[in-house]
Structure formats: C-alpha cells, structure tokens
Amino acid sequence: MTFYSDNTAPATPEVMAALNAANAGFAAPYGDDTATHGLNAAFSRLFETDVAVFPVPLGTAANGLLLSCLTRPWGVILANGAAHVLEDESTAPELFTDGARLVGLPGDRAKLDAATLRQRLVDWPWDFIHTAKPQALALTQSTEQGTVYTPDEVAALCDAAKAHGLKTMMDGARFANAVAHLGCAPADVTWRAGIDAMVFGVTKNGGMAAEAAVLFDRSLAEEFALRQKRAGQLISKMRYLSVQIAASIADDMWLKRAAHANAMATRLAAGLQAVPSVKLCHQPQANAVFVRMAPALADALSAAGWGFNPWRSLGQDSYRLVTAWNTPAETVDGFLAAVREQAAA
Ligand SMILES: Cc1ncc(COP(=O)(O)O)c(C=O)c1O
Ligand SMILES: C[C@@H](O)[C@H](N)C(=O)O
C-alpha cells in the first residue's frame, strides 16, 4: 500500500494512547462526554475565535452535513472540477443537501481561480427563475492534487463568492498538510479569509476515524446538530471520536505529523524528478505527488509490491503517490531505487 493513500496509514501513537485512556468506565453518550465538551474551547484557541465543533466519523459525511447547512435543496454548490465532493463521494453531497446541484469550475492543479469564479458568478442568470442559483462555494485545502491555497487566494475566492451571497466551506481533509506547508496561523487561511465552515481533517493525518466539523458561523450549530442526527451521523460513543481529535491537535502534533508527510512527499518528488523517464506533473505542496510515467514502468513497480494510484483525471499515464505521517525516509529511498532500476531495465 506504500504510497496508495494516507488513508492506509495506521493511527498515531498519541491517538491510540488517547483511545486507550478513554476506554475506561462509563461516559455520557451522544456528545455529552467530557472530551467532546472540551473541543469547542480547544478549537476556539486553535483558531483564535469562538467556534462550534462537531465530531463526525467520515470526511464525506462531514462535507455533506456542512454543505447541507450552507445550501438549500434548490441551490448550486460551486467547486473545482476535480473536487472530492464532485468526483469521489458518489452522490453523497446531493443526498445530504436533499438535491442541491454541484457544478465544477475549471482550475489548474485542482485549484479554484478567483477570476474564473468571479466571472462565472457575474454571468450567472440570477433573474432567470428556470436556472438554479449558486448558494455555496466548496474548496479543498490542501487540494486533491496536493496543491495549497494561500490565505490571499482563499480571501479572493471568498470575496468573489460573498459578493453574490454564497456561503463558503472548506474540505480540510488534509488541512494540516496545507498549514504545515504555509506556516501561517490556521485562522489566516480560514475564517479571516472568509470561510464560514470547514472540515478539520484528522483521519488522513493519523486519526483512526474522526473528523471535526468546525463552524466559524456558529449560527449554523443548531441546524448542523439536527441534520447530523437525521443523517444517522450522531455516534453514541462520541468520546472515541473526540479523544482522537483532541490528541491530534494537542502540542501541535497535527502540524508535526503533517510536516513529516509533506517532507517525505518533497523527498519523493525530488528523487522522481531525477529519473529521465518520469515526469512530475507539478511540485507537491502537501503530501501527494503526481507523475507521468510509462504504464509498463508503473506495472513493473506494482508487480514489485509498490502501491500507488492511477490518476486518470490527469491522463492515462498519470499516477498519484501519497505520503503519510509515518512514511519512513528509507521507504521513499527504497522506492526511488526501484524506480531507477526498473526505468533502466
Ligand atoms: C480531499 C478529501 N476530502 C474528503 C475525503 C472523504 O473522506 P472519507 O473517505 O473518510 O469519507 C477524502 C478521502 O480521502 C479526501 O481525499
Ligand atoms: C477516494 C480517494 O480519493 C480518497 N479520498 C483518497 O484520497 O485516497
């Protein structure tokens, strides 16, 4: 599974220790436990503003629940054409929003472009009753192609969206990798830039199964809670999600874990770039590397036991390699040696 996805990585020692420590005695269910009650304060400190936090087991559910609070069933959600909510969540967003439509916009390296968004919204037939109207913008940070939005880029997108009354949501399944790359305050690339709500991803960064839906617009909290229950996403033993989330953000472990994953992706990309027959699609900014190579070379590496993902949206000869919090440098170097050997064969 090596570089198949950070979804294949184990939970971190700190998450496992937190789960073991929580696994004693009785605790109030459905979010009334101590760990869950502590999340609002912990994330309010992390984001330097008062927030409401809801633990959710899966990223797809967290995305769908947030979108359902930001969009009415007759609305449109704008996203980049390569967005996970468009490409990799079946019709979950449509299910959670009771039928809202997702519309993909062009943008290189899975990034939305503010000028493109602005023009699309200006051109939208707002007075034409027959056309569904945009109500939300969804952006992924870091993106599905391992790129990262700067705070200014997020602000420009949110300004364009809000000029037409859209709410803004961030799919932060790999938010940690973005902030580790940017080195900025989490607030600067979220609510200060205009984001109304986000998924703060934990699972890909060493959680077992836990995401934190974070509402910067706390007026949405009651609706989110009601929708979470209606969607069958209100886990009874919530403590087991909340302790994972709390352990991930304690002592900035989320950033340390993500920084390692990013560093391994940078190491991997540098090594691959030195192989003449392998072409880097773009420099990684987070923990995903995208390359083009001959399918025969990819097949030989797979046959040798190396795991990675064909990424057809970038072309038939394109592949995604993802590093994780626990990817050893030795594994990266071993893969690079295998690539050099197979490429020379
Ligand atoms: C960018 C992004 N968002 C959301 C998700 C959804 O997470 P899950 O598969 O836990 O539903 C994923 C999954 O890896 C993802 O890559
Ligand atoms: C579905 C697949 O794309 C998953 N989200 C991953 O990143 O590995």
TrEMBL record:
Q: InterPro entries, alphabetically?
A: ArAA_b-elim_lyase/Thr_aldolase, Low_specificity_L-TA_bact, PyrdxlP-dep_Trfase, PyrdxlP-dep_Trfase_major, PyrdxlP-dep_Trfase_small
Q: Which domain of life is it from?
A: Bacteria
Question: Lyase: is it a keyword of this entry?
Answer: yes
Keyword rRNA processing tagged: no
Sample GO molecular function, one term:
L-allo-threonine aldolase activity
**Which key words tag this protein in UniProt?**
Lyase, Pyridoxal phosphate
Which Enzyme Commission numbers does its entry carry? 4.1.2.48
Its UniProt entry gives the catalysed reaction(s) as: L-threonine = acetaldehyde + glycine; L-allo-threonine = acetaldehyde + glycine
Where do the Aromatic amino acid beta-eliminating lyase/threonine aldolase domain residues begin and end?
3-294
| GO BP terms in the entry | L-threonine catabolic process
Entry cofactors = pyridoxal 5'-phosphate
Q: Which PANTHER family match?
A: L-THREONINE ALDOLASE-RELATED, LOW SPECIFICITY L-THREONINE ALDOLASE
The subunit structure is: Homotetramer.
Tell me the function of this protein.
Catalyzes the cleavage of L-allo-threonine and L-threonine to glycine and acetaldehyde.
Q: Tell me the protein family, please.
A: Belongs to the threonine aldolase family.
- What's the protein here called? L-threonine aldolase
Q: Which organism is it from?
A: Rhodothalassium salexigens DSM 2132
